[in-house]
């Protein structure tokens, strides 16, 4: 059985949006026999796709499995490039590791790695990232922007704005951003973003944007270390959310905002980021490796650097820190 045909057939039924498609029509469109169509349908049903078959009308898709495999994500994807190459794993150590390996093989801009679970998911500052099976979105996106190295941190902010827009669109929730990359619901973290780089003398070869989004966890799915500071979209909304729609929406906004950024520069992104930020204008404590600073978070620069004014009137540029408010 050809998996590509099976996946395309799943996509065709998804696009039909609940309307029946006849076996003959599918056979004609795919250039295969009706018996072959039936075999692909059986294969999809075994994978968890709910497909009813009504005599003289055809096949109707009534439910799809809650999986992030390409067949479930790609048919309704509204992007031009992002997500068109998609590597799906049921388990891996970290999607960042896989993405770094793929990036060296010259895969295209917008290649996506998704895994149902990570056994060694990693966060900023070498922290571990809880990645329970099937509960969240553990995704790394390989981008190849033609920008100078020092502008790379701006992509963390582009990614943050994209994820917030996607959460708003798919769930109706209204998250905030805590500098630089934490997405919060009622002060608790529902998403973290980790941006890593591959570069050489010619500049950036790849940006690997890792997104960890807590979608459908219950409280007991979080480890004791993060229970008090983490939340999921389901916990806040009170009902499960569609991981598939979220992935599609994140990729849509990431592609859109990256295009705006490349055409018009960082100003428009910065404006959106500031609109979602809980950090700017507030008193904060910035914990860094060697020192801790307290003051008012005044603004971010065009490079995404946080500006904190301390009580002595001095302005400090913060590149990387844990912010407490
Ligand atoms: C943070 O510390 O806030 C960043 C967390 C980033 C987690 C994501 S999950 C997908 C990708 N793979 C990883 O191992 N980390 C990132």
Compressed to H and E, one letter per element, the order equals HHHEEHEHEEHEEEEHHHEEEEE
> What is the helix tally?
9
The amount of helix comes to 25-40%
Q: In CATH, what is the homologous superfamily of the largest domain?
A: Bira Bifunctional Protein, Domain 2
Number of folding domains?
3
Taking pLDDT < 50 over at least 5 consecutive residues as the criterion, the unreliable ranges are none
- Round the Cα radius of gyration to an integer and report it: 22 Å
Q: What's the N-to-C terminus distance?
A: 56 Å
Say what the CATH topology of the largest domain is: BirA Bifunctional Protein, domain 2
Structural class: alpha+beta
**Strand count, sense and closure of the main sheet?**
7 strands, mixed
Mean pLDDT: 95
What's the level 1 CATH class of the largest domain?
Alpha Beta
Strand content: 25-35%
Overview of this structure, please?
- Strand 10 and strand 11 form a beta hairpin.
- The chain is elongated.
- Strands 3-4-5-9-8-7-6 form a seven-stranded mixed β-sheet, sandwiched between helices. The chain has a five-stranded antiparallel β-sheet with strand order 13-12-11-10-14, with no helix packed on it.
- The protein starts with a helix and ends with a strand.
- It folds into three domains: 61 residues, Orthogonal Bundle (Arc Repressor Mutant, subunit A), CATH 1.10.10.10; 207 residues, BirA Bifunctional Protein, domain 2 (2-Layer Sandwich), CATH 3.30.930.10; 42 residues, SH3 type barrels, CATH 2.30.30.
- Helix 1 crosses helix 3.
- The chain is an alpha+beta fold.
- It is built from nine helices and 14 strands.
- The longest helix has 22 residues.
- Helices cover 32% and strands 26% of the residues.
- The structure holds biotin.
- Biotin (BTN) binds next to helix 5, strand 5, strand 8 and strand 9.
- It catalyses: biotin + L-lysyl-[protein] + ATP = N(6)-biotinyl-L-lysyl-[protein] + AMP + diphosphate + H(+).
- InterPro entries: aa-tRNA-synth_II/BPL/LPL, Bifunct_BirA, Biotin_CoA_COase_ligase, BPL_C, BPL_LPL_catalytic, HTH_11, Transcriptional_repressor_C, WH-like_DNA-bd_sf.
- It holds the Pfam family BPL_LplA_LipB.
């Amino acid at each position: 059985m050809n998996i590509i045909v099976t996946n395309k057939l799943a996509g065709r039924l998804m696009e039909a949006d609940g309307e029946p498609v006849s076996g003959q029509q599918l056979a004609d469109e795919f250039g295969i026999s009706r018996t072959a169509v039936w075999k692909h349908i059986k294969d999809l049903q075994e994978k968890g796709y709910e497909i009813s078959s009504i005599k003289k009308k055809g096949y109707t898709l009534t439910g799809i499995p809650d999986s992030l495999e390409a067949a479930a994500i790609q048919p309704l994807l509204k992007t031009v490039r992002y997500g068109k190459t998609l590597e799906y794993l049921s388990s891996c150590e970290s999607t960042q590791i896989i993405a770094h390996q793929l990036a060296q093989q010259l895969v295209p801009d917008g290649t996506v790695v998704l895994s149902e679970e990570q056994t060694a998911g990693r966060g900023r500052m070498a922290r571990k990232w809880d990645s329970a099976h099937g509960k969240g979105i553990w995704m790394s996106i390989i981008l190849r922007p033609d920008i100078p190295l020092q502008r790379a941190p701006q992509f963390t902010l582009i990614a943050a704005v994209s994820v917030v827009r996607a959460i708003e669109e798919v769930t109706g929730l209204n998250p905030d951003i805590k500098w630089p990359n934490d997405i919060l619901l009622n002060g608790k973290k529902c998403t973290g973003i980790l941006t890593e780089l591959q570069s050489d003398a010619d500049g950036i070869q790849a940006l690997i944007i890792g997104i960890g989004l807590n979608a459908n966890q219950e409280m007991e799915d979080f480890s004791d270390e993060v229970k008090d500071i983490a939340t999921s979209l389901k916990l806040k909304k009170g009902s499960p959310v569609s991981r598939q729609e979220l992935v599609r929406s994140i990729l849509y906004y990431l592609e859109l905002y990256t295009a705006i950024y490349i055409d018009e520069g960082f100003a428009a992104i910065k404006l959106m980021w500031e609109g979602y930020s809980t950090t700017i204008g507030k008193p904060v404590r910035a914990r860094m490796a060697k020192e801790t600073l307290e003051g008012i978070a005044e603004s971010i620069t065009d490079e995404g650097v946080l500006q904190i004014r301390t009580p002595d009137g001095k302005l400090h540029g913060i590149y990387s820190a844990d912010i407490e408010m």
